[in-house]
Structures are given as structure tokens and as C-alpha cells.
Amino acid sequence: MKDKFSLTSCQMTALVILRFLIGWHILYEGLSKLLIPNWSSLSFLQESKWIMSGFSNWIITHSGVLSTVDFLNKWGLIAIGLALVLGLFTRLTSICGAVLLLIYYLNNPPLIGLEYTLPSEGSYLIVSKTLIEAMALVVLAVFPTGMYFGLDMLVKKQRNDNN
After folding, report:
1. Alpha-carbon distance 59 to 68, whole Å?
2. d(Cα 53, Cα 70) in Å, to the nearest integer?
3. Torsion, Cα of 64, 69, 70, 71 (10° steps)
4. How far apart are CA 13 and CA 119, in angstroms?
5. Residues 24-62: tens digit of each pLDDT
6. What's the rounded Cα separation, in Å, for the pair 61 and 103?
7. The domain containing residue 20 runs over which residues?
8. Within a domain: 3
9. What span, in angstroms and rounded, lies between the C-alpha atoms of 146 and 95?
């Protein structure tokens, strides 16, 4: 039998704040890439050392694919970040954000024996801020934070009014 429980307002508020902070970070990452002239994921993909390295090398060798990946990366980050900040389609957006961050992680994981030429923000071993943020998005995907505070409330109300 499934146990039902409800969150307190304090607990849900903390989750909403977490959603907003992650959304802001992802949105800012996308906007900063958009505003940097000629930004490209090329250097990041060249650093790929683990299970995504073959796919990353394939992207690099096809300029049209690289341009498409750059476009999708910038605008995907902006869309995911904005939706998280606004609380719009939060479950789907949280899952998409987690998948994107896991792709970043799998390209450049902090594993023993892998050395990167690009500087990193800190010293990590297996667990990085990217992995933590991805898992936080997985947690947010299972809680209806957009229904508590976000545009998901309005979407649900609109659907109910139309039925």
C-alpha cells in the first residue's frame, strides 16, 4: 500500500528556492554563452576523455553538427533555466536539465587517471557540482514545486477551466 504524506510549507518553500537557484544558474550559463561572440563547445568537447569521447570527437569533426550542438546548448540552457525559474513544466524541465547535466558530467568526469587541460573550479573525485546539480534536478522532478509556486498552477487551472 502506498503511503501518502504531505510536505510542510517550509519544506516546499525550500524545494522552490532550490528550483529557482538551479534555474537561475542554468539560465545564466545559457545567456552568457549567447552573449559571448563566437562561443563554441569545441574546447569542452575536445577535453572529453571518458565514455562520451567518441561521440564528442564525431561532433567536432562535423562543423554543421558542432554548430547545431552549440545552438541547442545555448538555447536549451536558456529554455530549461527560464522554465525552472518560472515554475513552468517543472517535472519535464527538471528531467531535461538533469539529462543535459549528466551529458556534461559523462564528457568530463572527475575520475582518477583523467587529466584535463582546462582549469576546473575545484578539486573533485567522482562527485562534482555538475553531478550534484543533476541529482538535485532529479529530486525536483518528483516534487510538484511548480504547482506550489509557479506557472504550473496557472496551466493546471486553465486545463481545469477548459474541462
Report:
1. 9
2. 17
3. 90
4. 35
5. 999 999 999 999 999 999 999 998 888 889 999 999 999
6. 19
7. 9-111+122-162
8. no
9. 14
Predicted confidence (pLDDT) per residue in 9-31, tens digit = 999 999 999 999 999 999 999 99
Question: In this structure, are residues 155 and 90 in contact, taking their beta carbons and an 8 Å threshold?
Answer: no
Number of domains, the chain: 1
In a domain? residue 27: yes
pLDDT on residue 139: 96
Instruction: Mention every residue, 6+ apart, whose C-beta is less than 8 A from residue 58.
Output: 65
Three-state DSSP at 127 gives strand
- Classify residue 74: in a domain, yes or no: yes
All three cell numbers of 40: 563554441
Residue 150 lies in a domain: yes
Whether the CB-CB separation of 80 and 100 falls below 8 Å is answered with yes
- The set of cell numbers assigned to 28 is 545564466
Is 145 in contact with 84 (CB distance < 8 Å)? Answer: no
Rounded average pLDDT over 3-11 = 81
Q: Which three cell numbers stand for residue 151?
A: 506557472
DSSP 114-125: ---SS--SS--B
